Amino acid sequence: MKKVLFTVALLAGAVVASAQVSVVKEAKSMKKDPAAAAKVLEAALTNPETANDPNTWQLAGDLQKAIYDEENMKMYLPGGQADMPRMYNSLVKMFEYYLKCDDVEQAGIANGTVKKAKLRKKNAENLLKVRTNLSNGGVEAFNANDYEGAQKYFGLFVDVVDHPMFADQAAALKADTLNTLFANYAAMAAGMREPKDVASVIKYGNIGKENASEGWRALMFMAEVYGNKENGDSIKWLETIKEGAQRFPEQDFFVGNIMDYYLQRGMVDEGLAQIDQLLATNEKPYFLYVKGVLLYEKKDYEAAHAALDKVIAAGGDLVAEAYSKKGDIYFFPAQQIVEENSSLNIDDPKYNANEAKIKEAYELAKPFYEKAKELEPDNQQIWGQMLLRIYWTLNKAEYEALEKEMGY
Hints:
This protein is mostly helical. 75% of the residues lie in helices and 0% in strands.
């Protein structure tokens, strides 16, 4: 009885396999309607009998290519309107199926069931012709805030160069600046997803950072991932920030972050060494301003003034900030004297001597804050509270006028 049942089971398996082969034949006969043929073929892509045949995947890729070509052609016909989601979906499937075809064909060569590769060359040519359109799909998805979709398109554009199908062209494909450019956008999309695809940010970021013009984007998103308080890596964060400052000194994000890092840890000399290295090749106002801040923190006020004066002379967006920082050089050291006086008796001779020092410092700080206010009247953070305190000490009428102006 067992033998009979086993024989029946074998026959049933043969019927299923035969059915899948029949499905492939049916799909081939329906090529004029590629969408319907692709639907019929779906079952054959998961059955071992047909899924291990490279010709099954070749047909699947050809059908998706036909759908893609049909929609793409509409874009060039008068009054034609392509179904863009359909077109891009078929584009991705075309890549998936042709790549799978190559995998199966190569596996067949390895195990002896296939004599030689017949499909690779044609499929590689077809994919390279349309590879750039993956980036168009990525742009459309990105603009629609579909970051998962954008990552899929941009990521596939980058990943494909590592497939054995393109081994003989891999060096040239990887050297193409478009590869590193779109790796940036893949990293960005991975970083903007919710939740973030951390592994992909790092994977594509390490490729994208090599792009001479856009690589800063990849490094910025990598830094954000490494800087995460819960599962980041502070060592990798600092390495990435330093790399960004060295590769892309024109991007203030990296310089600002590394200087904050040094300031928070009291590593002023290390920060000065870093900023001097950047200034040696590019004396931009932002670097000079950062140097002025570091020198201020070091209490080297004369040198700080000199750096800030260069910022002012250069003009630009940081002039008001530079004037404010010059005011800080006098104002904040005076606050230490104010604090000291708060613990002295008013009859103490030192109290009056300190009051004179405070007023002298405020007189020196006053014109710098007033200039900052003149340049950026809406940026009260860089002059507001300081001027109020100065006016309270030096001129009550000016204090009352400013208090009213600030809406207090």
